[in-house]
Amino acid sequence: MNTAGTLHAGRASFQRKAWADAYAELSGAARGTSLAPDDLERLATAAYLLGKDVESYDLWTRTHHDALAAGDIARSARCAFWLGFGLLMSGEKARGGAWISRARRLIEEEGLDCVEAGYVMIPDALRSLGEGDHAGAHATFHRAGELGRRFGDPNLVAISCLGQGQSLIGAGRIHEGAALLDEAMVAVEAGELSPLAAGIIYCGVIETCQQIFDLRRAQEWTTALTRWCESQPDLVPYRGRCLVHRAEIMLLHGAWLDAMHEAKKACHQLRHRPGEAATGYAFYLCAELHRLRGERVEAEQAYEQASRWGYTLQPGLALLRLAQGQVEAAEVAIRRIVNEASDQKTRTDVLPAYIDIMLAVGDVAAARAGADELSRIAEMLDAPFLQALATSAQGAILLAECEPLAALGPLRQACKTWEALDAQYELARVRILIGLACRQLGDEDTARMEFDTAHWCLQQLGASSELSRLDALASAGTPGNRHGLTPREVQVLRLIAAGKTNKAIAIKLFVSERTIDRHVSNILAKLNVPSRAAATAYACHHGLL
């Protein structure tokens, strides 16, 4: 094929999103002739979408200089922007910022009124968003979008729409912001955007939905992202993130083996792209799946990998320590991370684990404070997932306070939400709590049925750690249990774990304080532990709470 034919084939391959063919054909044409600026931009884009970052940056640089020499300042600024933006996204902030500054300077020096003037606003808007200046970010994104509309550039309009939605969500205007995310996605679904802009929109929208725990939107747009990636077999930059998002959804719905497969594929793809922020999270997801399946050695190894990629290991590592019986290590870690967490997203991520661990160590007051905060956030975000977590926590705390009848209301409410969300693991856990509440009320038949249903579900999931805990809970209510405590002593132990004094326990159970003193002595002797705190730790580890 001659040069003209190769060039024509390269353009056609680019049009049908066959990036490997486009790169090979346009590169071949470049050896026989000087490519036009539009073709150079196509070649730079194809290189980026194939994961050839160095080649892409070189091509953007060449196109920038060629346009500058030809006096095409707007094109030169556009190439400098995409080069800089790509570097920023890969973590090279100094180099990326320098190229964005060059693009901005070229536009300002020439006094150009062009769409590129809107593009160079985007990094400033993102910086404002990251600093918590939601009003400033919204205003800058809006100005950029106005330029996009005036010059008929759907890519800039969609990116602006995404940024405005993120700004509104950051300011607490959740529904308005989510509507703008959907509007940005309409442009992607309609095929109006370049592949560079479409990838930015997909990842930005899905990650924002996850931040506000809007699982319905996150799942819908992840499915759309999967289709988009599958339509471009050569695509590299967004495929790893797509796998991570798919793994998250599979984990929620109980397809843990499939989730592990997707997460490991994501680790393999992302680890070859330095600066990719999702790599550490992909390893963290693997670690969480190993932890839930009771594969503790593998979980440790995956957490170590996540740490090497700069990902924060909490709350997963604290929950692993709790499962290993290292209660003090779990408590110290989770208290530290909660005290350090200042932003709402981080606190929301760690509060459920904090509540579980505080209940495990018998600090019911701290658990209740955490649950109340989680409830406030859930109400503000109007997110069913968070609401189910909050109501599950409230029910667990009422159980720890020996208020089983009061606990059943929030627990059954949580059960309905988990069923609606098809969240199998969380559904099994709340069924265990419902069984415990029924047992405390003397309804052993219902308790056994709830335990059996939870056991079947956990067995299907492969949740061996939770299965062991459930077996311990079930045996705790049967004669001949391993700890040798009477039902009354178990009841006293639970109140000890709830932080009650002997006097308070005596009042609650309508007996003398001397009787409770005797029960406490018997409990410590039977469990062979030296203190109330040690008895609480034993009760947690053996499923007595």
From TrEMBL:
InterPro entries: Sig_transdc_resp-reg_C-effctor, TPR-like_helical_dom_sf, Tscrpt_reg_LuxR_C, WH-like_DNA-bd_sf. Coiled coil: none annotated. Residues 478-543 form the HTH luxR-type domain. Keywords: DNA-binding, Transcription, Transcription regulation. Transmembrane segments: none annotated. Gene3D superfamilies: Tetratricopeptide repeat domain (1.25.40.10), Winged helix-like DNA-binding domain superfamily/Winged helix DNA-binding domain (1.10.10.10). It comes from the Bacteria. PANTHER family: DNA-BINDING TRANSCRIPTIONAL ACTIVATOR DEVR_DOSR. This is LuxR C-terminal-related transcriptional regulator. It comes from Litchfieldella rifensis.
